[in-house]
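Why does residue order matter? Because the sequence determines the fold. Keep that principle in mind as you read this record.
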Amino acid sequence: MGGYQEFRELRVWQEAKELAVQIYKLTTNTNFARNYGLRDQARRAAVSVASNIAEGYERNSNKDFIRYLLISKGSLSELRTQLEIALEIGYIDGKTFEVIEERCQKTTAMLVNLIKARKEKN
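Structure:
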């Protein structure tokens, strides 16, 4: 689909995977690590973004790919909400939040652009 041999070549997947790695590292060494509920939800949401991009791509159907990209976008919004909560309760500082939020916004923009491009192919 789209000239790529596999999902790993998609820039949006690469960005989403790096975000998940960043979230895992963040939630390992802070107060975040002790709040199992919020930590696990943030990790699941972060992993879901990259995982759904990959799964949708491998379905070899434009309609399915779009659906999975939309799921990824929803998981990203879920993660952003959890990060806002973590900021407000002091689990992460403002600088850390800004860095991760910037990556989330970049990934969201990439998803939106890819969804738009895939819809135009229909």
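The radius of gyration is 15 Å.
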